[in-house]
Amino acid sequence: MKHTYLLFSWTIFRLLVFSACICTLGIVTSCEDKEDDVVKHNPSIAMTLTSFTPDSGRISEMVLLDGTNFGKDTALLKVFFNAKQASVIGSTGTRLLVIVPRLPGDTCTITVQVGDQVAAYSEKFIYKVEASVTTLAGKGHDYPGPVYTSLDQAEFWPTFLAVDKDFNIFMTDWTTGSLLKLNVQENSIQVLGTPQQGIDMRCVISVHPITQVVMLGDMGQATRDQFVFLDPKNNWAPKLHFIKSWDANGFDMPIDVGADDYANHIQCLYCEADEHLYTRYYSGQIVQINPKTWAAKIVAQTPEGLSNGMSFYPNTTMLWMGFEKGTLAGSICRIDVTDPGSLEEMSTPIGGGGHRDGPLAIAQFYGPRQLSFDEDNNLIICEAYNRDIRMLNTSTMMVSTIIGIPGVLGNQDGPKETATFWEPNYIAIDAEGIMYIADFGNKNIRRVAIE
Question: Cα–Cα distance between 363 and 349 in angstroms, integer?
Answer without folding.
Answer: 10
